[in-house]
Bifunctional uridylyltransferase/uridylyl-removing enzyme
Amino acid sequence: MSYISPTSSAAQPFVVYRAKLEQARERGQELLKSGASGLQIATAIAESIEQLILQIIQDQFYQLPEAEQKLISQHSTIMVIGGSGRGLMAPYSDVDLLFLYRSQVTSEFSEFVGNVVRNFWDTGLKLGHSVRTVADSVKMARTEPEFATAMIEARSIWGDESLAEQLIRSFYRHVILFRRRIFFEQCVIARWEEREQHGGAVMQLEPDIKRSPGGLRDIHLLRWAGYSRYGTANLDMLRLDSRISSRDVRTLKHARDYLLKVRIQLHYEAGKQQDLFTKDTQLWMAEQRNIEGTNGQRPVELLMQEYFQHSKAVAEITERFIKAHRPQPVFSRIYNFLMTHRSDSILKIVPDHLDVVPKYRTKVCSNLEEILKLFDTASLYGISIAPELLDTIRESTLQLPPALTNESIDLFRAIMDRSNNLGPTLRTMFETGVLNLLIPYMKHAYCLLQFNQYHSYTVDEHTFRAIEAAETFANDDSPLGSSYRRIEKKDILNLAILLHDIGKGYGEDHSKMGAMIAADTAVRFGLKEEEQKLLVFLVREHLTMAHLAFRRDISDPDILFAFSQKVGSPEKLRMLYVLTAADITAVGPGVFTDWKSELLSDLYERTMLLLGGKHSRYNRDQRLSRVKQRVRSHLELPQVLENEEDTTPWFTELFNSFSPHYLLVTPSERIAADIKILRDLPADQIVVEGEFEPETRTVNYHVIAQAMYSQSCFHRVVSVFTSKRMDIISAQITTSASGGVVDSFRVIDNDYAEEVPASRIKKMETEIRKAVVGESDAKTMFLNNQRFQEAASLSGEFDLGRVEIDNQSSKRCTIIDVIAHDRIGLLYIVSRAISRMGLSVVMAKISTHLDQVVDVFYVIDEQGQKIEDDARLQDISKQLQETLHEFELEGYKRYQRV
């Protein structure tokens, strides 16, 4: 092993080392600016840092006595492992070293290593290292997959090469050779666990470049698996041995180069190790790369679509390689052989997969009908298709004509009509290009990104998750499950789910664009006229139920009647209900909450009653009558029969003063308690009750006040929660006809991870009372709570929010929809603006998002009337829009203005 010259003793070593480290990073940055590939930059950085490592080692080595130098050089070696061993490093990557020694130099080598390691840290190199003998290393590698996989990349850079070669031989013999299956499984299990820890999906919108599915670690896994099975981690060697196709190797190399370059850019931008590709860095990188947007896609969306095309390809190739080359236990091979049977002497059906006899593969995959028969059979048996056969299908789809036959359409509809295994089947059809042949518009959705705060996945991933969500409803013991099971045309439903977001990325309203695509697809599939209309309706209206359930008062008969007229039939309502629930579920984990499920179910059941012939007003009156009877019972008041004199007119007056919405959605016990409090409440007093709910870890604050506090009550309560950094996740605002206020706020108290103590709730009750009566103001509260931090600023790539006024849906109120980014203080700013315009909030629905945050306010003017004047409506819209823009631009400063 050749050594480099030691640093001059006249120089200050750490100054020199740090300068060389900076030079290594600057060298990479210069290559980046000149347009070099990710591979070239990573190699150059690795070479420069390796030279620095050797310099530090040598300088320390030459400080030893000559006899000690000889002893250590003969009985030890220093090896780079892991990423350092691969010779590919980002500017702030860890340096992975193995200090290997023989027992003859235990104490001497230990002291030497301690000094070397200290020098590395002082230089600014982040080190991952271990000091071991050959036996220790092999033992460690057998039990720790992470160390074992790092050893695959091991090579000596200093010291006794024969010792390094001894370790490599021993490692292969004792860790790999006689335990291939165990090692293979250890690598795969460890990687799958790491994937889950970093999001579990390729198409998550803030991926980890290294560790998320489809990241660089997947390429490493494929190499480790290749080494385990075939003794080489080299992609070209695996290709020459026909273990992997040339096309897959090219794809992996292009993806590796792309991912490396992105990772290197992230490191340079952060000035430290940074592998998480956040939305902010995505915006920055799109600008750095001078990407130009299109009519339907922003620059950042085009950047991330390109990123996901690479990461998706990496994930798919790696998963196929693992599946194709996974060692099987002897028992499994025997079992599969005994259980395999053939169909028509062509198909081979194994317990866990479907295959075609090799000599017939090309013939079977030469037309779309035969390929669809394979997918139909696999779906029917609930098994997958063999990886080698999928490779053949993937190659064949590139050559097949786009025209569809009646047989191919019938086969596809049969697949789409199933209620199990459809999600995985469609995913595989998409990955192999079959789905693109059937529906050419699917190509547009490939890795298509929506750059916003609300979706967790790309359009294609969201779509398949929606399909899979709908399948789970089959066994759901709920109105949703019952509705799904009663749907007759499940192929039309599933086709609608597949197409519901296909209109995104065109620069138009995606529901309208999707409806046009659905109409075109319906003609392509030769659907009957009735089926065509049904498909187009479902795609066009896929947001309607969510809009009504989460943003409107569904106890309003006029809203229900208009919706029932639009739907027209129970079957269409069932399909729209299931589609809506599947869509919301697929937006991201935890989005389809129990609360949203109940709201959607309530709208469904009310509309179904109308479609069944019952008039909405009659139904509402009957329900209100039953509620009234239950409330009277809770108050221990006598029931009043028809034509009997009401001996408790005070109760009837108070009851009738509340909106039907409040009476129909509030438990009768709560209504009774509210009425009793309002009856006895002095005009100048406020009642506030807080209760912690362990199931949701939220606190529900109930505020009751008389008419003199009605106009500003909502705004002032919101100011208290905002000043304490609490998240308001829902609010029910009720103002009776006589002006009484009954408001409920469900909040998350961010100061407490578990149960919110009673003392905190009592303190909040006092703070709310003081705010409502005007004893405290917002500015003082914010200044007294200095822990309040402004949320991170949002880039101009996000819209600054908008205001929509609906004066049609409600006869009593004007409805204001505020569509904006979910930032701390938004509700406070908006509610203050509404209050200052002399408007009263009589009902509100807070943060009712599907793919955007929408705060909805039902308001009336100073005379308690709906706003009818066009000029005032325009002024309200203008003032709220300006408020939103100023808030987004100035943030926390706006809170303190009085």
User: Anything to note?
Assistant: The first helix runs from residue 13 to 33. Residues 803 and 818 are 5 Å apart (CA to CA). Residues 330-341, 788-797 have pLDDT under 50 and may be disordered.
